[in-house]
Every structure is written in structure tokens, then in C-alpha cells.
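FAQ: What does a ligand-bound record look like?

Like this one, built around FE2/S2 (inorganic) cluster:
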Amino acid sequence: MSEEIKKFKITIDGQTTEVLPGTSILEAARQIGGKLVPPAMCYYKPLETSGGRCRTCLVEVSKGSDADSRPMPKLVASCRTGVMDGMEVKNLTSEKTQEARKAVTEFLLINHPLDCPVCDQAGECHLQDLGYEHGVEATRIEFERRTFEPEDIGPNIKLHMNRCILCARCVLAANQLTETREHGILFRGEVAEISTYLNKALDNDFIGNVIDVCPVGALTDRTSRFASRVWFTKPVNATCECTKCSGTAVLWMKGEEIVRVTARKDQFDEIIDWICNECRWEKKDAKLWNIEGPRHIDRHSVISLNHYEKPKNMVSLLNNSHAKELSPEDEAESAVKKDSNFNLM
Ligand code: SF4
Ligand code: FES
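The answer part, i.e. the structure of the complex:
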């Protein structure tokens, strides 16, 4: 008979949940959900050993556990710190955490250019969101930013090293998804950079996923660069017959045209199902896909404002005394109101 594993109780910003031993504070926060979930620029659940690099997920542990109630002396990276039974954590309710997040944002922006107006990641960029929420108006850095020339790494991937925050997600994805990895982080500290060994092209069946895991615009899709701002495209769920991957993807459409194809992601912007290069780059014809319908974007971002979807539950809408057919403008406005943290672009 299997013994039931005793769960650990954890309270984050006053909300309590129970998790299995070994769960990180960040995952426990995700289990509770909502705004108390710390941001994560390097942690990526589907990638083993991710996290611990960017420090955006720092939180304050005000009570270590029931067995030892002392607070932890320093802020801890929630993605890499395990829950203890009876632990109490402060994220939004901690001034120290908010101050630290501001400092980390400033640090990440030391070298990152503010080129959102021309960057393909704008609207989907985690650093942009972080900058709006915690950024300061002016830089205090007097030194020159480090700069690199954009580089084509492989036939369909462009590397803008200027924008890279060295989160290592792409390296882990290439390591864990493909049989060969031809790129990595070269050098250390201030001069560290993502590069391909001997300028070899990244070329294997699943390498396109490195674009989707990149939290900023350092890795972009050469087949859709500058084709459209993301908020002008409509994401739709689509499937296709594929022998290499599940063939479940999101098509970003502009009229009848498929601007780009990406993997499906959850509310934390993490890939649910990796897709192969063929689905990503060689099926830009809508006839090759079975279109299921509009993709609901859970993630808090400007792209979740493409409210052309109908509410799932029409009955509850009709029962609502204010029920009426909303115009797209009304829907966008009500979504902004619902999410007071939303930052207009
Ligand atoms: S290229 Fe993107 S995914 Fe890779 S380390 Fe830099 S920021 Fe992270
Ligand atoms: S998400 Fe935890 S350190 Fe980067």
C-alpha cells in the first residue's frame, strides 16, 4: 500500500496552499496564481536546471518553517528555493522584494537597448513588462553599453546579442531538445555572450524553439522579422499532420496570411508542446492547417488584448443584467480595467 506523502503548507502574501515536498516557492506561488506570482526571466519549468540566473524572482522568507521560524537573512531566488512546512513568504507585500526587483530590472537594462519600437519581441517581452512595472525613468550608467552586430545563426534565426540577458534558456533548450548543441555561453562575466562554435549554423529539427523560450528579443524568427507588430496579428489554434512533432501550434495571422507559427504557451508563457522546424517555418500556407479557432492568450501582456474572442460562457453573460454585445473597443477597455497593472504601450 502506498504511503500518502505529507504535503507542506506555505503562505505567500497571506494566501496559503499545500504543495508536495521538493516544490519551489515559485511553483507554489503559481499554484495559488494571480499577481502574487513572482516574475521569472530565466526559470522555465519545461527546461531542467533552469533558473537561478536573473534574480527577478527574489522573495522575502519571513518565516523559515514551523520547525525553525526564523526568517531567512537575505532575499531568496524563489525559483530555486524549496518550500518548507509552515513557511511564510512575502512577495508583493515586501518592500525589500520590490526594491530588489527594481534594482534587478535596472541591472538587466544596463546593456539591454531600449529599442522596443523596432524589436519584434515588443508586446511579448518579459523585460519590457518588468521595465514598465519596476523600471526607472533614466539610466544611472555612465559607461557605454556593450554592442554587437546582429548575427544570423542558422537560416531562420537572428541573434541580437545586444538584447540578450544571458538567461541561458536557449542553451538549455538546445541541450535538452536536440541531439546536437552548437551554441552556448562563451566567456564569463561582463564579456559573456551567446555564440555558435566556429560560427556553425544552428540546424536541427527542433532548434526553432529557442526563439520561443527567449524572454527578450535576442533570438528572433528571420521569416517574420519586421512583418508586423504582434498586436496587429490574430493568434489562432491550429493543428496539422506532422511526423516529427504533435503538430499543435499557434498561427499568428494577418488576414489570410500566416505571419509566424509558434508553439502553444501557458499563462506563464512557457511552451506546452515543442514544435518542429517544419511546422514553424515550412507551413506558412493556411491550407496546410486545420484551424480550430481563436487562441486565448492567458499571459498578462498587450497580446492578450486581442479580444475578438466570444466569451466562453454565453449563459453567464446573458444572465448578467449588463449583458450586451461588446464592441472590440469596449472589450479592450474592460480588459484594461480588469487588469490595473496593465501598461499601455
Ligand atoms: S539569447 Fe535569449 S534565451 Fe538565449 S540566453 Fe540570451 S536572452 Fe536567454
Ligand atoms: S527566475 Fe529565478 S533567478 Fe531567474
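Follow-up question: can I read anything off the structure? Yes, for example: Helices lie at 25-32, 95-108, 126-134, 169-177, 209-213, 277-281, 314-319, 328-338.
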